[in-house]
């Protein structure tokens, strides 16, 4: 069994973190880079990730997330917040980044920017919100897999009141909407859930070969 599959069997949605254990600065950089390099449609990365260590802020978030202890007990709390709009200015900034990164004239990629605008300008606000949230979920997967490689635990969470988290973090001012919480740290020794057998569909129930 290769390491990736071993890591997937090792990881689980941690229910109880060891509050005394913190991830290292090197591990944090590694996790951030994994998120940064994540797959993203059109390459847009229409989200930002807030990494919260401040205990007071985390307590506030816990109170609007059904008092889930992982939020305050984990080493760090990652909040994935997706764009609430895809303005022409955001697309232009992305096109400029392409040109600068690849050391080419921006005129050579302006057509790509026009193509992207043509896709998103007709969309409703809700359609944009749905699409940008999906992109954030893809980035979360990179975080989960990279963390498992280093035996760091991650608990993906949708159980929170997004509007309240937005208020606490003032995300509206940045045209962002909280879509996912991900406490990151190390499982407690007495978290019995870690010993439960992983329950997944059998191959024949999941895959259809045509």
Brief characterization of the structure:
The protein has 210 residues and is of the alpha+beta class. The protein is 46% helix and 12% strand. It has one domain: NADH Oxidase (3-Layer(aba) Sandwich), CATH 3.40.109.
List keywords for this structure.
single chain; 210 residues; alpha+beta; NADH Oxidase; four-stranded antiparallel beta sheet; 4 strands; 46% helix; 12% strand; globular; NAD(P)H-dependent oxidoreductase; NfsB-like; Nitroreductase-like
Q: Over all CA atoms, what is the radius of gyration? A: 19 Å
Distance between the termini: 27 Å
Total separate domains: 1
Strand and helix order: HHEHHEHHHEHEH
User: What structural category do the secondary elements indicate?
Assistant: alpha+beta
The count of strands amounts to 4
Indicate the low-confidence ranges by residue numbers.
none
Give me the side-by-side strand order of the main sheet: 1-2-4-3
């Amino acid at each position: 069994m290769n390491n990736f599959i071993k890591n997937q069997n090792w990881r689980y949605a941690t229910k109880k973190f060891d509050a005394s254990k913190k991830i290292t600065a090197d591990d944090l950089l590694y996790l951030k880079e994994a998120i940064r390099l994540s797959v993203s449609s059109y390459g847009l990365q229409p989200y930002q990730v807030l990494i919260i260590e401040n205990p007071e802020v985390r307590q506030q978030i816990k109170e609007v997330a059904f008092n889930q202890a992982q939020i305050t007990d984990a080493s760090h709390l990652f909040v994935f917040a997706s764009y609430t709009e895809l303005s022409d200015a955001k697309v232009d900034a992305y096109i400029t980044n392409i040109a600068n990164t690849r050391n080419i004239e921006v005129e050579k990629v302006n057509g790509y920017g026009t193509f992207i605008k043509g896709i998103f300008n007709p969309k409703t606000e809700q359609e944009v919100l749905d699409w940008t949230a999906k992109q954030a979920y893809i980035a979360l997967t990179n975080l989960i897999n990279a963390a498992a490689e280093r035996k760091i635990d991650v608990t993906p969470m949708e159980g929170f009141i997004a509007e309240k988290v937005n208020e606490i973090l003032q995300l509206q001012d940045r045209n962002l909407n909280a879509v996912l919480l991900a406490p990151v740290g190390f499982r407690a020794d007495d978290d019995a859930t870690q010993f439960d057998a992983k329950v997944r569909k059998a191959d024949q129930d999941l895959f259809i070969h045509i």
